[in-house]
Amino acid sequence: RWEDYLPVEQRMPGTRFLAFKVPLKKNLAPKNVLPPWIFFNKLQEHNEELGLIIDLTYTHRYYKPEDLPETIPYLKICTIGHQIPDDDTIFKFQCAVNGFLKENKDNGELF
User: Fold this and answer.
1) Region for residue 22 given its phi and psi (left: phi exceeds 0; alpha: psi -120 to 50; beta: otherwise)
2) Residue among 62, 54, 63 nearest 85 (CA)
3) pTM of the predicted model, to two decimals?
4) What would be an example GO MF term here (predicted)?
5) 2: closest CA among 29, 27, 36?
6) Is-contact 26 33, C-beta < 8 A?
């Protein structure tokens, strides 16, 4: 599953969304680790700028927000995997997206 996907893809066409694998701590399986610095290097290669990280994992074990640049806001929305998110989770995500788009309508930052 993990190996089938690239760590960072290009933005989703017609949106400001950029999907990426969870950057993992160094103490987890080395071949599966995506340290945050690799992720940010990939963004630079694509000439993209990140304005918000929305973490949709249901755990805090993968990485710590303090490992991320302080200049990029981070939002955690715990989302249970392998099922459709409940209405509250969907609402939180919609509010985050709409708030970001409203605050960043004059730039091309991704989230």
Assistant:
1) beta
2) 54
3) 0.80
4) polynucleotide 5'-phosphatase activity
5) 29
6) yes
Distances (CA, A) of 57 to 41, 53, 77, 79: 22, 12, 7, 6
Tokens of 30: 């080395």
Domains of the chain in start order, with CATH, are 2-103 (3.90.190.10)
DSSP for 24-64, please give it.
PPTTS-GGG---HHHHHHHHHHTT--B--EEE--S-SSS--
- Rounded to a whole number of angstroms, the distance between the first and last alpha carbons of the chain is 23
55-96: pLDDT as tens digits: 888 988 776 788 788 889 999 999 998 899 999 999 999 999
Query: Which residues are registered as beta bridge partners of 54?
Result: 75
